[in-house]
Amino acid sequence: PPLAEQKVIADKLDSLLAQVEATKARLQRIPEILKTFRQSVLASAVSGKLTENWRQNKDVNWSQSSLADICRSVSDGDHQAPPKADSGIPFLVISNISNGEIDFDSVSRWVTESYYESLKDIRKPEINDILYTVTGSFGIPVIVKSTTPFCFQRHIAIIKPDHSKVDYKYLSYYLSSPEVFKHADSVA
Asked: What average pLDDT does range 25-46 have in this prediction?
């Protein structure tokens, strides 16, 4: 293009690329905004504010319970160092829990089937149990969605809800609420 048009193009690009950078900066703040919004919604849900209007014409009473009162068991992983195997039953560590899921693809440790079978039933995960990280990256609940047998280190708790007393999804949301995280942080 002629020199005059080159200047127009360069000026236009300066303007458009500045807009791109401003948009990029705003987009980079979105994860933190979403995290804050999520925490706000969770806080409203577990405090009762989210369903306040729905409950107005219903005979619904909220009550506080301990995990022991609403679960079949609350335990953690085996405290003994498990025997290592080249293959077999996956042995999870905290890093195998990410983005609210169990990442079986990242497992790098296994135990023998005989070791797994020797574990108490309260330490054998079942569908809709909740794993909860208790050290390091603590305060992360994850619902067990797989029938794949696995075991885990003692830094992970296993919560087996009594399904006649508590909805496992609600309990998982409650465990990820700011109120529970604040408590976990204070005792960590």
From this structure: 93
